[in-house]
Please model this.
Amino acid sequence: MFNSIYSASVTPVQLLLMAAAALCSGIFWSWLMSFHVRANRRFFIVSSVLPCVVGLVLTFINGNIGAGIAFGGAFALTRFRSAQGTSDEIVTVLIAMAAGCAFGMGYIAYGVLVLILMGLVFPALSSSKLFSHGSLSQEKLLNITIPESLDYSRAFEEPFTRYLSQAENVGVKTTGMGSMYRLSFRIRMKDPAEEKEMIDELRVRNSNLEIVVLPYAEPQAQL
Model:
């Protein structure tokens, strides 16, 4: 059952069997992930056919070193200009490619097994609280817009000491054609109920310009 269906040469029946299994499994995999990954419809269509495409590429190479180098060069010349995907989208594509590799080598049962198991494991991990840490969920991102004339090095030291147990400057950016600065702080409140009081005091010091408090998220690495 878990042996490769390919012999020394790939027959049309074997190729069609592999493509059908990869396509059906890919559609089922994308349908499962559509309940847990926030992405548009086009993304799930692509991830549905990806195992079949990867499987066909590997089938055509089939141990031919020259063909493998040619395919590698062709893909290296292709440049994809698209928005950076989320971690959920990236892992969905990688799992689909891994299953496609199994299909391409003729191991249909392994390809189907990979997609089914990952389709069960991924949602289970997503819904569990295994990696949820209460201390990290209390961290927030505070953005303060100030006029360029304000010395921001010590302007907010007093309210930060009173209301925050942690305040780390994570960025400074000019805005408003250089007439203002936007300060970003990684903060943790001593008492979350005092958030409005802190914002009111900060508004007095930043000339009532924009103040934003958001859940903190680590910046994504550029791929």
Summary: The longest strand covers residues 164-175.
